[in-house]
Amino acid sequence: MEGLEKGLEELRQTFGSGKTRDVAWRKSQLRGLLRLLNEEEEDIFRVLHEDLGKHRVEAYRDEVGVLKKSVNFALENLDGWMATKKVKLPWLVWPSKGEVVAEPLGLVLVFSSWNFPIGLTLECLIGAISAGNVVVLKPSEQSPASSLFLANCIPMYIDSKAVKIYEGGSSVAEKLLEYKWDKIFFTGSARVGRIVMTAAAKHLTPVTLELGGKCPGIVDSRLSLHDKKVTAQRIVAGKWGACCGQACIGIDYLLVEEKYASEMVDLLIRMIKKFFAKNHLSRIVNKQQYHRLSDLFNDPSVAASIFHGGSRNIKDLVIEPTIMLNPPLDAEIMTEEIFGPLLPIITLNKIEDSIEFLRSRPKPLAIYAFTNDEKFQRRIVAETSSGSITFNDAVVQTSSTDIGAAK
């Protein structure tokens, strides 16, 4: 990679100069990011549509708007984050005083993903800059328009001696991992996450992994008719409304009682037609992902389980919202993260059986349980393990609660 050594050396010199420790510098960089989001908003909408077919409303809701909120939150709280914290010490060391001083780590590497290529890239950058670090960004090559936009625009708004962008595929990522970093952020698959962790272990570099999983939705048939309709709306929005199902915290499959399955499917189909009649869905990111999803249909027993949808258009990289009823549990669609617009529904004798079903499978990033039964809610919290549990909604996460899959 031409210029990599020189670029990393410049970053180290910038960090060594101490300029990134200054609160005024950090705030100036955050304000630069805010200007980028405001002044380049139309271009952001353009590249997100080019890469993923995202409607501008979806692009603002899931990426631009979230980023603006994050920058403003950082600006409002930065002084407090940087402040020295006094701590109590045991009497054994009296009359000593104790303080905790926050300090930057140094050189940070960010591998971002293709499904939210602007949002997840800049979200990590906001945190790294707020903490006073210098940063290398490696955008995903699977969202090329967004990657090029970041490479061209970030140097216009951010100190180019403190933040650098390197575009490219796996060879670029492999080259970057040869170097020593003080912190690595990675968003992507568990397979690549293992590669990143292995490389980081050579230097004992701390790593934050944002991986995926199969997030289940549990639907209690004891809900009122009104609540069942609201549940269907929220499932449809949570499954297909965010990047056409290409979201790690999206609903992967549903668990429902067998006696309720037909009613649930009918409600879902009605809501799909209501929400997406004008086809405002994002598209599949590229042919590689399109073929991966299409391969899930190739198993005859899986194809036989399709209850609604299933049509595909490779030219436009579009797969219709598809509902499957009881595909085989050992089929790939039920053992691997779907990451697309396919929704299997698995039926159970009683909804309480969902707890044992989840306990028998890998721990998910999130569980979405639609039930008003407080006893059942308490059992789900006590007897399952996941990164988060949300009751009566989907995809909703908050910055005030930790997000991360239990292992």
TrEMBL record:
Domain of life the protein comes from: Eukaryota
Keyword Repressor found: no
Keywords: NAD, Oxidoreductase
Pfam families recorded: Aldedh (PF00171)
Stored InterPro entries: Ald_DH/histidinol_DH, Ald_DH_C, Ald_DH_N, Aldehyde_DH_dom, Aldehyde_DH_NAD(P)
Positions annotated as active site in the UniProt record: 210, 248
Gene Ontology CC entries for this record: cytoplasm
GO MF annotations, alphabetized: aldehyde dehydrogenase (NAD+) activity
GO BP, sorted A to Z: aldehyde metabolic process; response to abscisic acid
Residue span(s) of domain Aldehyde dehydrogenase: 14-400
Reactions catalysed, as given in the entry: an aldehyde + NAD(+) + H2O = a carboxylate + NADH + 2 H(+)
Similarity field: Belongs to the aldehyde dehydrogenase family.
Protein known as: Aldehyde dehydrogenase
Gene: ALDH3F1
